[in-house]
Design brief:
globular, 592 residues, four-stranded antiparallel β-sheet, 17% strand, single chain, ten-stranded mixed β-sheet
Length: 592
């Protein structure tokens, strides 16, 4: 059987299993709203997977726990021994498991609570952040707790490791997360980025070293500063192991939403990944990875969200200068997305680190010369950190239809890209969905991603097509995006028309100040001679007020002028419409 057929079969089996598990939610109808089903199904799936995994060593672990209690062994030593006994980085010391729970329906609530409290601290952390105690109480009061546990004991809830591998269990869990996210409809994108976008981001991340990884494997680290349910880290791991079975990726991430943090940590435990690297907290105000450096960073941080809550901590960090994360500048307090970008830049491994990060259009151009946003762009461009920016199609995300961009930043540009930025317009490279999910009306299929990557790797000024798909690439010097904003004054004159001087300096006419934006590539004096002095011979510059700014006018650089229709063509269109109207009126009313 061909590899792609095997993959389809695997995907089909995973989806079928996820559908069976999700069917358990039929018992929640009326007690929970449809978008709340995942609050029960996801943690129950996690618990049942762990329950099935721990089953072979269950009795030995319980006995060992009693023995250690008698010996007064506590803390890390106790945890270490119990994890070793269980054979996993987690354990449960309760006398109950799912099968024993359903044997005593009259005491299901108290027994289930005792079962939960028997888990190791890392699982209790997940349960706590799921706020699962609230759901258990609701199910118990609604008399469905026993039924739900019983359903998970049935064949549809069998998640034994000897029947479902860690990788497949990860896919099943992701499919359940997707169902949960889609039930939120327009809210889905708050914590879930669809795989098509992530696949493109991962391709852009690994592109320069794909051949090397294929030949020799690799040992890498990856970080997502707004990890949501950790799908980005999962997809990147999957892609690297596809390129080489010898590839090893250790993942780290931080998330501020407690429920999605719980999902991410559970997902890592289910897959056997680095669950201890999943951290809870606000990345901007409570950085859990200070001093860390990563090979890869992949992230879709929130945009259009203010940073008022983190204001004092962010400003204190900014005062550290470049010893901190925000030394380059602070953006407008109404939008904190560029703070995430700076956080990522700080954490890129020197000489080789690569980052793909989603931003909306404001990061390209908001803020006047000298403003925080402009200074951040200046830091990125003058530091030669921006490798490429890809404009994505609109209507690609679940929760927004606006234009979005993937920034590719690196601390290790190849020689041919030094001093250059590649802009890629992929706004016309998409396939329409048969069924919309929230604002998501289009997808990036394999052809779309391949065409975008063709443009990226070619690194030239060109247009690339595949049927109706179009991608355009342009490259620019870093300095192309810089400009000097100069203050233009008009000199005061005496009755004879001579300029007035005080201490040898021209005196400006009050209220007549103006400004000019001059590209860094142009000589300022020559610009004045050509563009200002012919129209105002008394103009002069106050060079103390010069400000350097940077903006990336992406849309303008790819704008295509379309000549308007001639008056003759418009008149012909009107006549044709009038003729059509007359025909329709005759059909409706005859000759009346």
């Amino acid at each position: 059987m061909a590899i792609n057929e095997l993959q389809k079969q695997t995907n089909s089996n995973i989806q079928a299993k996820a559908n069976l598990i999700w069917e358990i939610a039929t018992h929640l109808v009326g007690l929970f709203k449809p978008h709340e089903y995942g609050k029960v199904i996801l943690p129950m799936t996690v618990l049942k997977r762990f329950d099935d995994a721990l089953a072979p060593t269950k009795n030995v672990v319980v006995q060992m726990a009693e023995k250690l209690t008698g010996m007064k062994v506590e803390g890390k030593a106790r945890d270490g021994i119990l994890c070793k006994t269980a054979g996993y980085p987690f354990y449960n010391t309760s006398k109950f498991d799912f099968k024993k729970l359903v044997s005593d329906p009259d005491n299901i609530e108290s027994n289930f609570e005792a079962y939960l409290q028997g888990f190791s601290k890392n699982i209790l952390d997940i349960i706590s952040n799921f706020k699962f105690a609230d759901q258990v109480r609701t199910m118990a009061e609604g008399n469905v707790l026993f039924v739900v546990v019983q359903e998970f004991v049935s064949a549809k809830g069998d998640m034994s490791p000897d029947k479902i591998t860690s990788a497949d269990m990860g896919y099943i869990f992701e499919e359940l997360i997707r169902k949960f996210s889609e039930s939120y409809d327009e809210q889905a994108g708050a914590h879930f980025t669809s795989r098509d976008i992530i696949y493109l981001m991962t391709e852009l991340l690994v592109a320069p070293e794909k051949d090397e990884i294929s030949k020799n494997g690799c040992t890498k680290t990856a970080y997502d500063m707004a990890m949501g349910t950790s799908q980005m880290l999962g997809c990147l791991t999957e892609r690297l192991t596809e390129i080489s079975p010898e590839a090893s990726l250790t993942c780290f991430g931080q998330e501020f939403n407690p429920e999605t943090y719980a999902i991410a940590k559970a997902d890592m435990l289910i897959k056997g990944g680095n669950a201890s690297g999943m951290m809870y907290g606000d990345t901007l105000s409570d950085d859990k990875f200070s001093g860390y450096e990563f090979d890869y960073i992949i992230s879709n941080p929130p945009f259009g969200i203010d940073w008022k809550r983190e204001k004092s901590e962010v400003e204190a960090e900014a005062k550290k200068g470049f010893n901190g994360r925000f030394g380059a500048g602070l953006p407008a307090i109404s939008d904190g997305q560029m703070l995430f970008m700076l956080n990522g830049v700080k954490k890129l491994k020197e000489g080789s680190g690569r980052m793909t990060i989603i931003q909306n259009g404001s990061s390209l151009f908001t803020g006047d010369a000298g403003s925080g946003a402009s200074e951040i762009r200046r830091h990125l461009l003058e530091g030669d950190l921006v490798e490429a920016i890809v404009q994505l199609p609109t209507d690609l995300f679940y929760n927004t239809g606006i234009s979005t961009y993937i920034w590719v930043l690196t601390k290790g540009k190849p020689a041919e890209r030094l001093g250059k930025v590649q802009l890629i317009d992929a706004s016309k490279c998409f396939v329409k969905r048969r069924k919309n999910i929230g604002d998501k009306r289009v997808d990036l299929d394999d052809r779309c991603i391949a065409l975008i990557m063709k443009a990226y790797t070619a690194f030239s000024d060109d247009v690339y097509t595949d049927g109706n798909l179009v991608v355009e690439s342009k490259k620019f010097d870093n300095a192309f995006f810089g400009f000097t904003k100069v203050t233009v004054e008009t000199a005061q004159t005496d009755e004879d028309g001579n300029s007035i001087l005080k201490k040898g300096k021209l005196q400006p006419v009050k209220g007549a100040s103006d400004s000019e934006v001059i590209p860094l590539s142009e000589d300022i004096d020559e610009y004045m001679k050509k563009n200002v002095l012919p129209y105002n011979p008394l103009a002069f510059l106050d060079r103390k007020k010069d400000k350097t700014g940077y903006e990336i006018p992406f849309t303008r650089l790819f704008y295509k002028f379309t000549a308007p229709e001639s008056s003759e063509e418009i008149f012909a269109d009107i006549k044709a419409l009038e003729k059509e109207e007359t025909t329709l009126m005759k059909e409706l009313f005859g000759n009346a």
